[in-house]
């Protein structure tokens, strides 16, 4: 009888310990940190996410008919059109014509990127409107929709910009077709608007179910986080904010100030100045942020 009681007591203690560990682990994942600590965690998570998305995305696109690949290495999916420039020069187009074409492509790409950012901002505002608390699970839930907004941009570039503007521009130069770039850019804006609207609707649909599930499974987490001083979800997910923060500038910084800060960071992290792996990764991030701001005309 005593032996049986000891066994039962041991089982109860074991279950209690397992339950406590499980609770603490789950609580740690979902607990609300101080606003500043939470923002830092979000920035790290989003920075890592951008790197992973870039690494997992095929960055070259075939320019059909002309049988060459253009590279789109800049964030989110932009090109400097070096391969197109090489193709044009090899096919006896003048330097002046080639440079004019590259300028037109850069201008069209910039317009498309800015249109996408306008539509993406609506999605990020919808993140705020879901009312989701800022915790581990909710951040990862919203990350799916943020990543899909990047995928939308990539798809419009590969399926719209490349065949309808880049390739079509070469067709135009060869006298094979007419091209109205502004018309094509506006068409792609409408694609962005439709795709992001659909994504927002799916976010609202899923977040309603998700919130109910969270409420049921996490009764112990009764925080009034909205009373705390915090950065909005939309601000934390903003790619423009990421670029400013990476360079250590802000939206009020002038083009010259951004250039000056970029040169300062390059003096610290450029591989010629700093051989560490951390510095190499940091310089990649700095370059991406700088090129991104150039692409949206924040740097002349």
UniProtKB/TrEMBL annotation:
Gene3D superfamilies: DnaJ domain. One of its GO terms (biological process) is ERAD pathway. The chain crosses the membrane at residues 6-27. SUPFAM superfamilies: Chaperone J-domain. GO terms for molecular function: misfolded protein binding; protein-folding chaperone binding. Pfam families: DnaJ (PF00226). This is Heat shock protein chaperone. InterPro entries: DnaJ_domain, Hsp70_co-chaperone_J-domain, J_dom_sf. It comes from Mesoplasma florum (strain ATCC 33453 / NBRC 100688 / NCTC 11704 / L1).
């Amino acid at each position: 009888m005593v032996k049986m009681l000891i066994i039962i007591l041991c089982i109860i203690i074991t279950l209690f310990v397992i339950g406590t560990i499980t609770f603490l682990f789950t609580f740690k994942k979902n607990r609300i940190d101080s606003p500043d600590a939470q923002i830092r965690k979000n920035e790290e998570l989003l920075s890592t996410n951008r790197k992973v998305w870039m690494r997992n995305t095929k960055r070259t696109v075939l320019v059909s008919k002309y049988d060459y690949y253009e590279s789109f290495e800049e964030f989110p999916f932009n090109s400097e059109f070096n391969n197109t420039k090489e193709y044009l020069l090899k096919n006896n187009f003048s330097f002046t014509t080639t440079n004019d074409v590259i300028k037109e492509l850069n201008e069209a790409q910039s317009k498309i990127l800015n249109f996408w950012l306008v539509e993406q901002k609506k999605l990020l505002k919808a993140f705020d409107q879901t009312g989701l608390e800022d915790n581990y699970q909710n951040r990862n839930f919203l990350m799916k929709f943020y990543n899909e907004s990047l995928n939308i941009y990539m798809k419009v570039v590969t399926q719209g910009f490349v065949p309808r503007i880049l390739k079509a521009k070469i067709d135009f130069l060869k006298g094979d077709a007419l091209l109205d770039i502004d018309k094509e850019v506006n068409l792609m804006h409408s694609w962005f608007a439709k795709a992001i609207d659909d994504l927002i609707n799916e976010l609202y649909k899923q977040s309603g179910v998700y919130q109910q599930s969270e409420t049921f499974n996490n009764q112990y987490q009764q925080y009034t986080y909205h009373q705390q001083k915090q950065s909005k979800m939309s601000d934390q997910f903003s790619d423009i904010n990421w670029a400013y923060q990476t360079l250590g500038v802000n939206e009020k910084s002038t083009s010259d100030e951004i250039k000056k800060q970029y040169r300062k960071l390059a003096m610290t992290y450029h591989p010629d100045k700093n051989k560490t792996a951390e510095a190499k990764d940091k310089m990649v991030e700095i370059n991406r942020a700088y090129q991104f701001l150039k692409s949206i005309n924040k740097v002349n």
